[in-house]
Specification:
By secondary structure, this protein is α/β, with parallel strands linked by helices. It folds into three domains: about 1-70, Alpha-Beta Plaits; about 80-160, 2-Layer Sandwich (GMP Synthetase, Chain A, domain 3), CATH 3.30.300; about 180-355, Vaccinia Virus protein VP39 (Rossmann fold, 3-Layer(aba) Sandwich), CATH 3.40.50.150. It has helices spanning about 15-25, 50-60, 80-85, 120-130, 185-195, 210-220, 235-245, 260-265, 285-290, 310-325, and strands at about 1-10, 35, 40-45, 65-70, 100-105, 105-110, 135-140, 155-160, 165-170, 170-175, 200-205, 225-230, 250-255, 275, 300-305, 330-345, 345-355. The chain has a seven-stranded mixed β-sheet, with helices on both faces. A hairpin with a 2-residue loop joins strand 5 and strand 6. The longest helix has 13 residues, at about 235-245. The N and C termini lie far apart (about 65 Å).
Length: about 350
């Protein structure tokens, strides 16, 4: 069956974010199929958004507009992972069913609790059933560790590979999750930082990985130069490929090697803006970041973990003290906030600091 219905018309680049916001606001009509229309998506609505709600939507997707289209009804209500697994697992284990997945391209990464170990194949098959665009299920088999920040994985279901193509904020990334660190949970943060870069700025991403911060900046802001440094040679190989895929190879300079040594040799005093996404040990490299910032000053985006009873204020104090040891100082903190929860009583936070 079909019916005429109001909708949000938005470009595919902003479709995922707009749908998430529409769901959060209770606007999206989940009984109707989302419609593709050239380079746009039409998201069916169950009610008209208010002016304030449209303002929130346009803040994320400026081109979003209201329209009317003919939509088809969904053939059946899609089941959630919990709904599928609650019929397969003993009742006492329902509380252990994973509530969140990291989806990178067509790979789903899941943390399977010990009490579900004997049912992990069922968990993997259920994820494949409820996520039609996923073809590989990996479970975490250890923590992120080592100089290259890698994690071990175990194949659970689907195809046996760790390589995929991930799309975010209008960019495409070739990623091998077993060979380079990558988190899809920083998508909005990468978009936020890129939006702050002014035309003509020089940016240095000191722990760039496969390039999600650096490439988005190079693609959307046409900065004079973007330097992307990482110690992991395989991550930098992927980064170079991603620069070509996204057509920013003439803007992005990929450098493999130890950040401290690279800055000393090539990047002293070159940047208007420095990105430090190495939350576990970034404080050890504040002196390096200050050396990259131009003599007249610039902005550092510093990421760190805050674990209770530690506080964001303590993190600011430690950062400011580390900056002062270099002979520079924090003129002001522009932004200080939690970015995402990483564990119970732990979050990743960001400080945007103006350095002089």
């Amino acid at each position: 069956m079909t019916q005429e219905n109001s909708c949000l018309k938005v470009t595919k680049n902003h479709g995922e974010q707009t749908l998430a916001l529409a769901n959060k606001m209770g606007l999206a009509n989940k009984t109707l199929q989302i419609q593709k229309e050239g380079d746009n998506l039409c998201i069916p609505l169950k009610r008209q958004p208010t002016e304030d709600e449209m303002g929130v939507l346009r803040a994320k997707a400026p081109e979003v507009q209201l329209a009317t289209r003919i939509f088809s009804n969904k053939k059946h209500e899609e089941k959630t992972l919990f709904e599928v697994l609650q019929n397969l697992l003993p009742h006492g284990l329902h509380g252990s069913i994973p509530r969140a997945l990291d989806i990178v391209g067509d790979i789903a990464i899941v943390e399977i609790p010990l009490d579900l170990e004997q049912y992990k194949k069922a968990v993997g098959e259920a994820i494949l059933k409820t996520h039609k665009n996923v073809h590989v299920i990996l479970s975490k088999a250890g923590k992120v560790s080592g100089t290259y920040r890698l994690r071990n994985f175990e194949f659970v279901a689907g195809e046996q590979r760790t390589y995929t193509i991930y799309k975010e904020n209008g960019c495409a990334y070739h990623i091998d999750v077993a060979k380079a660190y990558f988190s899809p949970r920083l998508s909005h943060e990468r978009e936020r930082v890129a939006s702050l870069v002014q035309e003509g700025e020089t940016v240095a991403d000191l722990f760039a990985g496969v390039g999600p911060f650096a490439i988005l900046i190079a693609k959307t802001r046409k900065a004079a130069k973007v330097f992307a440094v990482d110690i992991n040679p395989e991550a930098v190989d992927m980064q170079k490929k991603n620069a070509c895929v996204n057509r920013v190879e003439n803007i992005l300079v990929s450098i493999v090697g130890d950040t401290r040594k690279i800055v000393e040799e090539k990047l002293t005093g070159v940047a208007d803006r420095v990105i430090m996404n190495l939350p576990e040990t970034a404080c050890d490299f504040v002196d390096v970041a200050c050396k990259v910032v131009k003599p007249e000053g610039g902005v550092i985006h510093f990421y760190g973990f805050v674990r209770s009873p530690d506080t964001l204020e303590n993190m600011k104090t430690r950062f400011a003290e580390a900056v002062e040891k270099t002979g520079r100082k924090v003129e002001k903190f522009i932004v200080t906030k939690a970015v995402r929860e990483t564990a119970p009583y732990e979050c990743q936070a960001v400080l945007d600091a103006k350095i002089i």
